[in-house]
Amino acid sequence: MKKIKLAILAISALFFAVFGNVPNSIVGEWMLGYPEVYGGMIINSDGTGYVWEWEETHYDTTIIDSLVFLSENELIAFFHKGDYVAYDEYTFTIVGRKLVLCEDGLYCKEYIRKDPTSISPKQRTQTSRSFQINQNSNSLNLNFSANSQKRIEILNLQGRVLNSQSFSTKNKSVSIANLPRGVFFLRVFEGGNVNSVKFVRE
Q1: Is there a single domain that holds both residue 114 and residue 140?
Q2: Residue 187: is it exposed, middle or buried by C-beta count within 10 angstroms (0-12/13-18/19+)?
C-alpha cells in the first residue's frame, strides 16, 4: 500500500464526482476462495466497502474509504490508516459471477459473487442479517431471532477492535458511551457467519 496525507480524501471525492458513479457490475458482495470461503468483500454503490480475510485464528479486516474508477476496468482504492490514507491501484475483470482483481497488474485474486442459495451456513462469509439494531446516544441495542452463541466486535476505521463480547441471549445492549465521535463498524459472529454494520457515534 502507498501512503498519502489524510487531505487526499477531499481530492478523491472530487475524482469520484468527475469520473462518475461506481459501476453496478461491481457493487455487491463477493466471496474469496469459493467453495471453501476464507474471505470476501462488500462494495457499496457510494464507493465505500469492507474487505476481510481469515488468517488462521482471526479475521484481517480493511475498511474501504472510497473507490475511484479511472476507466471501465481500472480503479484506485483508498484505505484509512491512522493519519494517512493508503491507496492501491487495481485492474479488474468481471465475467458472469467471477471478479478477477489485480493489484498493480501483478498480484491477482479471484472472487465469486455471493449467491445465498449456494453457501453452507458453516462457511465464514458475510450473510444476510439475523438481527436488528436500534441505536441511541450511548448504546447499540441488538435483537436477534434466536438464542445462540454470538460474538460482537466494535472496530474503528483503522480496523482496530475496540470492544469484543460474547453472549447467547436474543437481546443485547452494547455500550458505546466511551467511544469518541466518528464512524465505526459493528461486526457480529453467529453460527460461523459474520455480518458488519457501519454506525456513527455523534
Answers
A1: no
A2: buried
